[in-house]
Amino acid sequence: MSLAFNEEQRSLKDTARDFARDNTPVEALRQLRDTQDELGYSKEHWAQMVELGFGGVIFPEAYSGFDFGVKGLAGCMEEFGRTLTVSPLLSSVALSGSLILEAGNEAQKSKWLPAIAMGEKLVSVALEETSRHNPQATALSAEKVADGYKLNGKKTLVIDGHVADLLLVVARTSGQAGEQDGISLFLVDPEAQGVDVQRTVLTDSRNYARLELSDVVVAQDALLGEEGQGFAPLDKALDVARICLAAEMFGSIQEAFERTVEYFKERKQFGVLIGTFQALQHRAAHMYTEVQVCKTILMDALNALESGADNAPALVSGAKAKISEVAELVSNEAVQLHGGIGVTDELDIGLFLKRARLSQILLGDERFHYQRYATLSGF
Amino acid sequence: MSDSKAFRQEIRAWLEENCPESMRSKAKPEEQVWGGRNIQFPSEDARVWFERCVEKGYCVPDWPKEYGGAGFDQKQTRIFQQEMTRLNCRPPQVNLGIWMAGPAILEFGTEEQKREHLPKIARGEIRWCQGYSEPGAGSDLAGLQCKAESDGDEYVINGSKIWTSYADHSDWIYCLVRTDSDAPKHNGITFLLFDMASEGVEAKPIELITGETHFCQTFFDNVRVPKKNALGEENKGWTVAKRVLEFERDMMSDMESTAVNSGQSPRSIGQKFLGDEDGRVTDEVFRHAIAKHEVQRRGLEMSQQRMIDEYMQGIGDPRIAMIFKYVGTEEEKSKYELMVKMAGEHSLGWGEGYTENEIQMTKDWMGAKTHSIAGGTSEIQLNIIAKRALGLPEK
């Protein structure tokens, strides 16, 4: 499999680039932030994105998808990362869609996947419980009761949770926090009794929520996949989302880096362009090498994932870890190398810094993922 | 069956038939065949393997047949190399002629020069060394002062070169000399080829921190060289020199995969010294560092493939090639630092009490320090990236 996008994938990526340039430039994020938009994303833009087919890229044709593969979606995510485009693509399509595809029965798939692909419904995964990503530490309890389950516990950092039409709640039906066995997945209606969804506002002006479940009773058919066996499909779906997020981060990294290099060619100090200073040239050149390595690592992981290679999970972790490190490097350097204007709200670079840090910790930071890589690689 | 499939089968069959079993592993330093007038073979198998490859032109598979190569095109050469790697075949000979002098002569040489030098390189008859750096000209290579004065049909050379690898075992040198002291420094350099057996040439080995002595300082005292030995035009040697530096950079970025070393990796060292019975590295900080090393290493290696794949898709970007030497040699240094931290005294042994393999690790750690200096320091590589990949302005 090629480490370069093919013509079809490039054409889809170009569509994403043109859409983002014309409709969701960084200014669109500012507007959502400054108007304290209730939804936190633009329904209009999302409808346009669905119209262009981005909602169905990874789904099979049977579920209103285009069966274009995760590589196709990742190319789009990269372009949306360049403009910090806000959309439910990561939460509803890449993560929730993949999870339903992996774990769902036929009825669940045919009900939810076309609705996600067509943008009619938004679905969010409620996973995190602590400050650090750690799926197997899930503790939220799901107790077997007559005709169903009773859920109790809290979730945090639920991406797009406040606008979700359906929550996929990761819960524990048996065993101890820290064990992979005993994790189960449930479809929960956010309107159901005992469900409290609280929007949280974070520095990247994207959308997250906290969730509190108090004696929430769901029916037996709310179970997604097998009881106690939720970890495996969850991990698979997370990998799709992790690589899509890494692709988005890679787009943001490139944008912040390129803007910095351009600034080197405009800004004068001591009577000369600052780009002539070797101390600065070397920092930019080092970042260039890191960006290039990231690109390879991203493509390598995408290929492994798409071909179902045994080492795909390890390579996805490698990619999320490496790209998280480089996101930190480049976002910090971009601010520093812009000098005073770099810490103003007026300049977009600050928005890239904020998004970089959030996306670094989302779905596992470099520490989580290097450890996971090691576990999966047998050391 | 496609042509390339048939070609692959032909190569595979030939290698399986002709590469002796003992030649199917990485060669230790003393097992390498360097070629030259005093060619030496560490074993009978090495001789047989060398002779069979020479006969087919396989020491330089991509060179034209008339110059001693196999005449393979780019695709065939890649298949050939893949098949060599598949069987883990050693290169039949290693030599600066194959890596640098030969490709430069192919690109810039006259027909006469090609016919004189290339077949001898292909057949391992002449061993080359490189006369680039001088005591006063390291990173500022173009500031070189070794002088070649015109005297009729000859140049008379005076001065010295440093870091001339294996100069004391080499037969010919490709050497940068100053033929015009008044011109701007890049415009007064000539790329000259001459015989190390010439009167007035002396090579003295330099001992490195690793204990190795393959680098030399080489002195020229009124050495007379025919003017027709210039590669390219007089005073235009810098163009040739830069091209050769690119060959060198490409070769050195690949050093890690071809290098002869202790055969240890951060993972194997981590498991040996810090692993539990299941092979899990118990120290989380080292575990993180090993993973980080492996991800970066693979990223670097796959970047070569990405470059090719992008060209195949018509979206190739030549700038990627500029990262390899810097990323490769810097990564190699951090890899050995990591191994030293985990193995402790077992990777710093230098004599009694330590195995040969442990001492090799010590040498590898120090040897890596030379790689980010030789062939253009990391800082020079960053200069090149800043200027040519990013288009940053010069003062």
Automatic annotation (TrEMBL), chain A:
Needed co-factor(s): FAD
Acyl-CoA dehydrogenase/oxidase N-terminal domain mapped to chain residues: 6-120
Keyword Ubl conjugation in annotation: no
GO molecular function: acyl-CoA dehydrogenase activity; flavin adenine dinucleotide binding
Keyword flag Flavoprotein: yes
Source superkingdom: Bacteria
TM regions (residue ranges): none
Protein name: Acyl-CoA dehydrogenase
Name of a matching Pfam family: Acyl-CoA_dh_1
Domain Acyl-CoA oxidase/dehydrogenase middle: 136-201
UniProt similarity note: Belongs to the acyl-CoA dehydrogenase family.
InterPro entries attached to this UniProt entry: Acyl-CoA_Oxase/DH_mid-dom, Acyl-CoA_Oxase/DH_mid-dom_sf, AcylCo_DH-like_C, AcylCo_DH/oxidase_C, AcylCoA_DH/ox_N, AcylCoA_DH/ox_N_sf, AcylCoA_DH/oxidase_NM_dom_sf
Residue ranges constituting the Acyl-CoA dehydrogenase/oxidase C-terminal domain according to the UniProt record: 228-366
Keywords: FAD, Flavoprotein, Oxidoreductase
From TrEMBL, chain B:
Family annotation (InterPro entries): Acyl-CoA_Oxase/DH_mid-dom (IPR006091), Acyl-CoA_Oxase/DH_mid-dom_sf (IPR046373), AcylCo_DH-like_C (IPR036250), AcylCo_DH/oxidase_C (IPR009075), AcylCoA_DH/ox_N (IPR013786), AcylCoA_DH/ox_N_sf (IPR037069), AcylCoA_DH/oxidase_NM_dom_sf (IPR009100), Mycobact_Acyl-CoA_DH (IPR052161)
Pfam family, one: Acyl-CoA_dh_N
Residues of the Acyl-CoA oxidase/dehydrogenase middle domain: 129-223
Cellular component GO terms held in the UniProt record: plasma membrane
Sequence ranges assigned to domain Acyl-CoA dehydrogenase/oxidase C-terminal in this UniProt record: 235-389
Keyword tags: FAD, Flavoprotein, Oxidoreductase
Name of the protein in its database record: Acyl-CoA dehydrogenase
Keyword Oxidoreductase: yes
Source organism: Endozoicomonas numazuensis
Record-stated family: Belongs to the acyl-CoA dehydrogenase family.
Domain of life: Bacteria
Cofactor annotation: FAD
Gene3D superfamilies in alphabetical order: Acyl-CoA dehydrogenase/oxidase, N-terminal domain (1.10.540.10), Butyryl-CoA Dehydrogenase, subunit A, domain 2 (2.40.110.10), Butyryl-CoA Dehydrogenase, subunit A, domain 3 (1.20.140.10)
Residue span, Acyl-CoA dehydrogenase/oxidase N-terminal domain: 4-125
MF-aspect GO terms: flavin adenine dinucleotide binding; oxidoreductase activity, acting on the CH-CH group of donors
Transmembrane segments: none
